[in-house]
Write a structure and sequence with these properties.
The protein has three helices and no strands. Helix 1 runs antiparallel to helix 2 and helix 2 runs antiparallel to helix 3. The longest helix has 28 residues.
Length: 113
């Protein structure tokens, strides 16, 4: 359920919420990756506990983890500075660690199920 709120990553595309100097390569990949992850999370919630739901949940978990790791890479590659995040600074400082922990928990749950 927590990951259905990953639409908040769209804040990276809002001109007033982030600095105009925010690298667009980072902003677009993070925002659109989060949209896909949120959609997969909602679809898997709707179709669980059936077989398609488990497949969607695995797909969501793999995509979501890869999206977060890609955002780390893109931010480092683009030379992202902390001030460029503007009002969206709480996403990498508060939400991303929580999302990574829940992805790890989901992996452990599915591997033991």
């Amino acid at each position: 359920m927590l990951h259905s709120f990953r639409l908040i990553g769209l804040a990276f595309l809002v001109p007033g919420a982030v600095s105009p100097d925010l690298p667009s390569a980072f902003a677009h990949s993070a925002a659109y990756g989060d949209i896909v992850a949120a959609t997969l999370a909602l679809l898997s919630l709707l179709s669980l506990p059936g077989g398609p739901g488990v497949v969607l949940a695995w797909g969501f978990n793999i995509w979501g983890t890869a999206d977060l790791l890609n955002a780390f890479y893109q931010a480092n590659h683009a030379g992202l500075l902390a001030g460029q995040l503007g009002a969206a600074y709480f996403i990498p400082t508060l939400l991303v660690p929580l999302l990574l922990v829940t992805h790890g928990l989901c992996s452990g749950f599915f591997c033991n199920a």
